[in-house]
Amino acid sequence: VRSAPRLSAASMSVVEHVREMASAGLHSNVRLLSGLLLTMSGNNPELFSPSQKYQLLVYHADSLFHDKEYRNAVSKYTMALQQKKALSKTSKVRPSTGNAASTPQSQCLPSEIEVKYKMAECYTMLKQDKDAIAILDGIPSRQRTPKINMMLANLYKKAGQERSSVTSYKEVLRQCPLALDAILGLLSLSVKGAEVASMTINIIQSIPNLDWLSVWIKAYAFVHTGDNTRAINTICSLEKKSLLRDNVDLLGSLADLYFRAGDNKNSILKFEQAQMLDPYLIKGMDVYGYLLAREGRLEDVENLGCRLFNISDQHAEPWVVSGCHSFYSKRYSRALYLGAKAIQLNSNSVQALLLKGAALRNMGRVQEAIIHFREAIRLAPCRLDCYEGLIECYLASNSIREAMVMANNVYKTLGANAQTLTLLATVCLEDPVTQEKAKTLLDKALTQRPDYIKAVVKKAELLSREQKYEDGIALLRNALANQSDCVLHRILGDFLVAVNEYQEAMDQYSIALSLDPNDQKSLEGMQKMEKEESPTDATQEEDVDDMEGSGEEGDLEGSDSEAAQWADQEQWFGMQ
Fold it and tell me: 282-377: which CATH topology?
């Protein structure tokens, strides 16, 4: 006959059950049972041993972490560490008795280092990065696991402690030489590609089918130095290899690089390829939505936003896409809210910062906008659109000197390409003294890239000031030979009006509106032409209206169409 178990044996069995449930992922069950057992322990301190209390506190904290109650979890983890400290002191004072039951118990104790890592995760979720760094810094270097070093590296980088970040990333690579995100982290901190590649050379040589890795490192080294052309060429060479063809990450990187290089057509094409391969793709879709919105494809932006929200509303990208829809519908307050929501979800979202900055600028809150564009520049120093947003703010507040200093810095930092030349020319156009310099810069930009839309637009603006309409028409026809763009068609319409080519001007406005039905300037150009029609034509039209009564019907149809369009948009915003 078995004798009744003693209380201590029964207590051990309860803790083991909690541990088994935790291992099985039964977090809600662990939370309930451990909470009750901890209350029992509080009412009777002798009920559980110090090691048992430590285990119960850790398992209870883990269940709180799983329920996203991070502050409560930190509190319980802190209590657990205090209990572990007391346990360590007791062990030193009282040597082991050799009891067989104590051995497995000590072996099953949750790792103190793992507890500290979980605490750091809680602090990052609470946006208390300094506390996260402090808790991880307290772990001796030799005891830091790869995931601890990776978290420390990212936290150091975010805090601007670049040297410490580089050291931690290198430690991750020493332990795990195929940690590709750590490689990207080092490249983003200006560590030379050759140095990074040297840290992976042994693994490349020892494992078959890894010869692509050195090229991959080279490609992203170009990305992080802002050499978009060589980065595109290198990634294209990787993407063409049969083993890496149709890789979604490479296609996404190519799309982003084309966007940075100002080649929006190819950028959209690569984004479309990527999302066809992966319908649940979220990364980069904020840039894709922005490009679609810029082209006036608001219906496509709406559909993209709905699709992304169905995938996840806990990422910044769906909110940014919806914000782009609002921004290009001239609903700046809503765009501001959506941008702020995106930043709340991901404070490192460059596109969210740009969206919020642009909304603030258009609402007249320029100084607040400047703060957001500066933060975007800090996060993405090689992205020209971040500098463009800041320079537009300076120009909006008549700070031409600050704009000129910034444009010159960008020109020197990112090199003399079509984009930086055009940006500098844009600032020069604001000052009558530097008009000739603007002309020279734009000519250089167009020599490099005759199809670069921003350069064409600025050159056309300069020719319009000089009333050289024929030259402007030739420039615009040449730019439109291999591409179709709403703004270029509209400006061509304006130039044709200036030389009395009314019918073709009307055609150009129509094309512009077909590309972007919301382009107000094209609509105004068209309406202006209709008002300036000859009296004879106007009389004939009035006669036809009297006979057929078609004029009023036409107006009503237009009103219905416009009302339907706004009704659709109201429905979309109502859904949000």
Answer: 1.25.40
